[in-house]
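Re-running V-type ATPase subunit E to confirm reproducibility after the cluster update. Everything else is unchanged from the original entry.
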Amino acid sequence: MNDADVSKQIQQMVRFIRQEAEEKANEISISAEEEFNIERLQLLESAKRKLRQDYDRKLKQVDIRKRIDYSTQLNASRIKYLQAQDDVVTALKDSAAKDLLRVSNDKNNYKKLLKSLIIESLLRLKEPSVLLRCREMDKKVVESVIEDAKRQYAEKAKVGSPKITIDEKVFLPPPPNPKLPDSHDPHCSGGVVLASQDGKIVCENTLDARLDVAFRQKLPQIRTRLVGAPETSRA
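Result of re-run:
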């Protein structure tokens, strides 16, 4: 083999090697581009997914905030409504309490009322001996009706006449002072308090206590009147 043939074969080998190298390089380039595209798509999908998650999270936060705000406003409205309702009830009770002060001004009717309250208290206690407390200003009126009250009680209960001792040391508080409307001092609009001699059984029959009982009993009806009766469905 001469030098020309050897040179020709070498050139052929070089071309072959170069072609293989180019083909390999092309394969590597294509593979790298495919991997790059795949990774790019994955990163893009991951970014999209993260954006959707962030959007959903923020949307939920907005929805929760709206619900919280609505609930807060609703509770505030309810509190204002209940407060207004309580203010009306308190005003009604205060008005009734002021009317009680006029009861003792009618001497004849108040005298009859005191006797009835004493009889009612005796019937509740059913004790042979009781201690009676009244306002100091009512002491003479109580003394004037006490015997008649004992007699009527004995007739109704079919028992002997009880012993009633008027407490000369401790009196019920006086009526509220109109000049001091904001005073929190104890006061009593009238009536009596009877107790067994040992003090274990007490019947508070003052006008103020009766008013409290009446308001507690009538409070549901009062609130219903304030709210308004629910409309009945028409057929």
